[in-house]
Design goal:
single chain, mainly alpha, Four Helix Bundle (Hemerythrin (Met), subunit A), 5 helices, 81% helix, 0% strand, Hemerythrin-like, Hemerythrin-like domain-containing protein
Length: 170
């Protein structure tokens, strides 16, 4: 019975871990959106704290995507060559999301201490664009890679969790 449980855990772990990371990143973005809405409403975090929150989210999302590009996608492409087009599409999304993250960081770097309607509208639009693309990207990735990841046994991923499967504890 112990061997079966260990095998079942191994077979579900990577896809399940990917879903957990995506849930965590979605929650981080929702928190950032809430903090931005509070700032726009004239309450909540000052711009300095918004920038710090954004930096945490942006770093986590970038680390996740860089880890996929460098660690996960090459292994998947080798074992499942029929997914190379999917992986290429996902890399394209990563580049687009990186561009949007940079734009958002630049906007937050220029936030005035007191919100003004023009800046608030621009920041909200940027966050909404980022959220829409990130959500679509995650859904596509989950649909295409969940079962593939669950079918894989990559001992080095079990021994040392790769960055694309990491969740910060704080």
């Amino acid at each position: 019975m112990g061997e079966y449980s260990e095998a079942a855990e191994r077979l579900t772990s990577f896809g399940t871990q990917l879903l957990e990371v995506h849930i965590w990143l979605r929650e981080m973005l929702e928190d950032l959106q809430d903090h931005i809405d509070d700032y726009v409403a004239g309450k909540g975090l000052p711009p300095r704290d918004l920038r710090a929150h954004c930096l945490s989210f942006c770093t986590a999302l970038s680390r996740h995507h860089t880890g996929e590009d460098k660690n996960a996608f090459p292994v998947i492409a080798e074992r499942f060559p029929e997914l190379r087009t999917v992986l290429s599409d996902l890399r394209t999304d990563h580049n687009q999301l990186d561009w949007l993250l940079n734009r958002l960081q630049n906007l937050l770097d220029g936030l005035p201490a007191e919100p003004d309607p023009s800046t608030a509208a621009t920041v909200r639009e940027e966050v909404e664009a980022l959220s829409a693309i990130m959500q679509t990207h995650f859904l596509y990735e989950e649909k295409k890679l969940f079962s593939v990841l669950n079918s894989m046994d990559v001992p080095e991923w079990r021994e040392n969790r790769p960055s694309f499967l990491e969740i910060d504890d704080d």
